[in-house]
UniProtKB/TrEMBL annotation:
Belongs to the alternative oxidase family. It comes from the Eukaryota. GO terms for molecular function: alternative oxidase activity; metal ion binding. It comes from Paramecium pentaurelia. This is Alternative oxidase.
Length: 266
């Protein structure tokens, strides 16, 4: 074996790697004031595509609220949303939210290759969004592992959603970004409600105010060493607000070719 290669291999095995080391893309790190300053402002629908995007998301939310037990529809159902229902709701939400950024980034990557021209920086932001949503999913998986039935539902939902969004993005990318913008509006509402429930004494998830966040979450969001799950949820909510603003901005670009004003990590 080549002597240089042998030394390189030995050196690589001798390096002590932190257990929490990750290879995530640059992403925003929010300070405490920013975590509290979250807007629930709705983007008004102006065009036919905007109205379609809005009502599509609203119809999906109604079905999702019923299926996840978030909304009481039967007399025997409790008005309280249990910890299990909260976890299942956000897990499913994140498996859906992690799709658009990756699919859109792939489309724009291939378009850049075909057109042999630059993409104006959109690809990185879209892929970072997809990764960020996946981190949200992995964060909640540290709290509870889903059942086989739940995983099967995710596979089936992902199959049709990836296909549908992929085809739609080829023809109506602006409408697709508007759909994601409205989806993120609903995500911000959900996490705002969740935060209120965490802070409400006696709620099924009130213990999250003192339950320590795991090391990966603390490292990823740059949280303090004694951060709790409440702090993590606030960071996730701020991420969703950021995705909302980014996608509404992209949807406002009718040319789909303006420079991306969101640099890496911003």
């Amino acid at each position: 074996m080549n002597r240089h290669l042998s030394k390189l291999i030995q050196k690589s095995f001798s390096i002590q790697t932190k257990a929490t080391q990750n290879y995530t893309m640059p992403h925003p790190i929010w300070n405490k004031p920013e975590l509290e300053q979250v807007s629930l402002e709705h983007k008004p629908a102006l065009t036919f595509g905007d109205h379609f995007a809005y009502y599509f998301i609203q119809s999906m939310r109604i079905g999702f609220d019923v299926m996840s037990g978030y909304k009481k529809i039967a007399p025997f159902q409790s008005e309280l949303v249990s910890e299990k229902k909260w976890i299942n709701r956000v897990l499913f939400l994140e498996t859906v939210a992690g799709v658009p950024g990756f699919v859109a980034g792939m489309h724009r990557h291939l378009r850049s290759l075909r057109g042999m021209k630059r993409d104006q920086g959109w690809i990185h932001t879209l892929l970072e969004e997809a990764e960020n949503e996946r981190i949200h999913l992995l964060t909640f998986l540290n709290i509870k592992k889903p059942s086989l039935i739940f995983r099967t539902g995710v596979v089936l939902a992902q199959t049709w959603y990836v296909a549908l969004f992929g085809v739609a993005y080829m023809f109506w990318p602006r409408v697709c970004h508007r759909i994601v913008g409205y989806l993120e509006e609903e995500a911000v509402k959900t996490y705002t409600h969740m935060i209120h429930e965490i802070e409400r004494e006696g709620s099924p998830i009130h213990s999250w105010t003192t339950r320590k966040a795991n090391e990966h979450s603390i490292e990823y969001w740059g949280l303090e060493k004694d951060a709790t799950l409440l702090d993590v949820v606030k960071a996730i909510r701020k991420d969703e607000e950021h995705h909302k603003d980014v996608n509404h901005y992209f949807a406002d670009d009718y040319t789909q070719s303006k420079p991306n004003p969101f640099p890496p990590g911003k």
